[in-house]
Design brief:
- With about 240 residues, this protein is an alpha/beta fold.
- It has eight helices and twelve strands.
- The chain is globular.
- InterPro entries: CheY-like_superfamily, OmpR/PhoB-type_DNA-bd, Sig_transdc_resp-reg_C-effctor, Sig_transdc_resp-reg_receiver, WalR-like, WH-like_DNA-bd_sf.
- Keywords: Cytoplasm, DNA-binding, Phosphoprotein, Transcription, Transcription regulation, Two-component regulatory system.
- Its main location: cytoplasm.
């Protein structure tokens, strides 16, 4: 029995990019659906789920930022977004809104393919564990509970919805309370080795994680910043 093909959604108003990337991904065995604006993509994803989405920022009818917010309000779908090199603010904002990764234009299709595969692998681990494959149990650190078999994060019994990347960052920090993790170590934990990610990407993910915890507990301060060094988890 052949393995089920994974579905990638591409959203960009540049039809040349859509066609080129679609051909590359289909040649690698993916099913690809394309949209030229955020509104049609949101409608399409509502009726036909996918395994991962790649979103451009600047699009008509609904831009990538709004689409990202709409998707994150109801789904933890793995998301990579595209931005121009001079759009650093947009890159950081996208990460704070919940994107798992970003790539700057113009980009290498090989790089995009590697990032897609890496993110899908991370997501597949969570799905496999949820299905009962290689369960690793639950990590408990004071009020924090991380159940890898269900990809579930609880803070004092209250559910915290984390993306794949966010979950892996929290897990890496909580695994060794009090131990400082450098940004490079956190990049390896969340993205895997040999994947280059700017340090500020980790900072943005951490800010979003803190915000999610503080939405259920205003006093949450377990993730500490050591300026110029990295982060550590402070157990209660």
């Amino acid at each position: 029995m052949e393995p089920t093909k994974q579905t990638i959604v591409l959203v960009d108003d540049d039809r040349n990019i859509l066609t080129s990337v679609q051909m590359t991904l289909e040649a690698e065995g993916f099913i690809v659906r394309t949209y030229t604006d955020g509104e049609s993509a949101l409608h399409g994803l509502s009726s036909r789920p996918a395994d991962l989405a790649v979103l451009d920022i600047k699009m008509p009818r609904m831009d990538g930022m709004e689409l990202l917010q709409r998707l994150r309000a109801r789904s933890q779908l793995p998301i990579i977004f595209l931005s121009s090199k001079d759009e650093e603010v947009d890159q950081l904002m996208g990460l704070r809104l919940g994107a798992d990764d970003y790539i700057t234009k113009p980009f290498s299709q090989r790089l995009l393919l590697e990032r897609i595969r890496a993110l899908l692998r991370r997501n597949e681990v969570s799905r496999s564990e949820a299905a009962g494959v290689s369960p690793t149990g639950t990590m408990v650190r004071g009020g924090l509970s991380l159940d890898e078999t269900r990809h579930q994060c609880l803070w004092h019994g209250r559910d915290i919805q984390l993306t794949v990347t966010e979950f892996l960052l929290v897990k890496a920090l909580a695994a060794r309370p009090g131990l400082v993790k450098s940004r490079d170590q956190l990049i390896d934990a969340a993205y895997g080795e040999n994947i280059y990610v700017d340090d500020r990407t980790i900072d943005s993910h951490i800010k979003r994680v803190r915000k999610k915890f503080r939405q259920v507990d205003e006093e949450f301060n377990q993730i500490e910043t050591l300026y110029g060094i990295g982060y550590r988890y402070k157990e209660e």
